[in-house]
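Lecture notes, continued. The same structure-token format from the folding unit now serves as the input rather than the output. Read the line below as a description of shape only.
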């Protein structure tokens, strides 16, 4: 299904359709503040495995991120972090950043990397955040398979490519081509793993 959702004022009925799909173990393609991504419910193991299959990699190697609504649930999914790191997260999020943090025991095993970390992301995008708000827990997120190509910015072309593979493609307008900036915060000094759309000056 190709579902048009207004980027500034998401229709709550459409959002509920997406959330029901996620709770049923569906996989979606949705917009963020950077590129379009694959998403599923973090507690639906089969959906997680499906995303890994679409990307043709092992789930533990899939570099999956958690999309959160805000920082209020941070302690559920990460081990305790310092006040200074919390301040940094607060000043950069929502925004085009993924922060690598130590994972807590609450994180499903299939989602933890071998280093026992997760990627935390709060995109500055109303559609993504409204979905997570209605879902009431994080959305699992991964980039689309292969190289970033122009076709991955246009939801109608994405739909043509993935309509037999995912359950819903959300059309929230034309997406970007530059992914988020990834910062590893597991050791100090914090290290940029990938320079993306977000500037990092710490």
């Amino acid at each position: 299904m190709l579902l048009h959702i207004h980027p500034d004022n998401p229709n709550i009925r459409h959002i509920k359709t997406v959330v029901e799909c996620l709770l049923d173990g569906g996989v979606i393609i949705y917009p963020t503040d950077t590129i379009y991504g694959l998403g599923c419910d973090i507690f639906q193991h089969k959906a997680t495995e499906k995303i890994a299959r679409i990307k043709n990699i092992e789930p533990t190697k899939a570099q999956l991120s958690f999309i959160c609504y805000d920082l209020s649930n941070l302690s559920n999914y990460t081990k305790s972090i310092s006040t200074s790191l919390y301040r940094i997260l607060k000043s950069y999020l929502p925004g085009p950043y993924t922060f690598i943090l130590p994972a807590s025991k609450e994180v499903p095993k299939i989602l933890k990397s071998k280093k026992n970390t997760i990627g935390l992301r709060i995109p500055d995008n109303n559609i993504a955040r409204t979905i997570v708000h209605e879902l009431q827990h994080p959305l699992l997120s991964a980039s689309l398979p292969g190289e970033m190509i122009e076709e991955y910015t246009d939801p109608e072309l994405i739909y043509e490519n993935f309509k037999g593979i995912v359950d819903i493609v959300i059309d929230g307008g034309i997406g970007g081509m530059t992914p988020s900036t990834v910062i590893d915060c597991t050791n100090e000094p914090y290290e940029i793993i990938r320079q993306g759309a977000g500037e990092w000056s710490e």
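Point for the exam: The longest helix spans residues 12-23.
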